[in-house]
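Journal club side-thread
Mid-discussion, someone asked how the predicted structure for our own chain would compare to the paper's figures. Pasting it here so we can look after the session.
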Amino acid sequence: MISSTVSTRRLRWAGALLGATAAAAALYAHAAAPAAAPAAAAVVTVPGMPRVVNPANLYSETATGRVSPALQGDLPRVYVPNLRGNSVSVIDPATLKVVDTFKVGRGPQHIVPSWDLRTLWVANNAERRTDGSLTPIDPRTGKPGESVEVDDPYNLYFTPDGKSAIVVAEARHRLDFRDPKTLAMQYSIDVPQCGGINHADFSIDGREALFTCEFQGSVARIDLVNRQVLGYLKLKMPSTRFKAAGPVDNGPPGSEVCSAQKGMPQDIRISPNGKRYFVADMEADGVHVIDAATFTEIGFIATGVAAHGLYPSRDGSKLYVANRGSHKIHGKPKGAGSVTVIDFASEKIVAQWPIPGGGSPDMGNVSADGQWLWLSGRFDDVVYRINTSSGAVDKIKVGQEPHGLTVWPLPGRYSLGHTGNLR
């Protein structure tokens, strides 16, 4: 099933948000814009990590036109893990049709490009069971290989030097560092105070990683060089949040008192200059802003109901926020789903795109040419292709409960994991 919607209602909502009553301005408060900074100095990275070409924009090598020559033979595809279907749907982005579906392990959560960009791993975490696995996909053929047994792989990342794959063993409160090729265990770091450890991003120099703790409303700071936890940061909750009251095509949702005692942080992404981290929070309905140097929260940007996924634009100027539309882990279809566009430099909202008829945008990535934002519709069993100029939405029917899809191929030199966190 494919549908496309362009609506003036989207424009009315954008006008309401960007426009103007004091109440709306308070509801969509944003962190103060950072002061202008001098030209960035060269970054001293950990040994083995590719150099930071542009210290002012660590996403410079993921710009349009920078797909590695090694990927030229890879099929242009969108790979979608269907969590309840134990399968992967494969979409041809040229036709918006599902061209293949294949079975993988139990509970596939994310499709993760390997550090060297030559394998796409399906993270089958087999929640509440012990038969988790990683299924390799050959990006040249789009076909899966034999799964490798791995304990509790909710998510998968790679150290910036490429020496280790990091299996995020959520149920174990643990990070398992494994050989990136064979997946043999190297060592583990216990993160006991990080219940629901799930998403991560890495410092500009590769020395540290920040992991979100979904069930404790906090973020964990990991020293990758000395292999230890440096500390935890409890995230602040706003006094109000949005009402999850169904589709939001006709205007922004109303507000309610935020009764949640702690947040539910999800995706995390570093700013282009490496000085701030942005953390999506499903309970707070927005994005926390963390100072990278001091590990303190310095701002909050209200975006929409259940902020979840974060994706930088191809030019590194904007951050796309997928608002899943429900504060519940298992929400209903046709919720208050939307996408918020934040300008990295000013930390202000510059666009707001509702999902027509309601939806549940979750995880995904931006196409190589930057024209499309692809997101799974978690509770609607669809995938959204969103035009990054207009916000117009196409919907493609897939399997049951699609989650962390990836688009392939993507520009960049190496992958840090998740659904295509390339640099």
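Post-session note: The helical segments are 8-19, 22-27.
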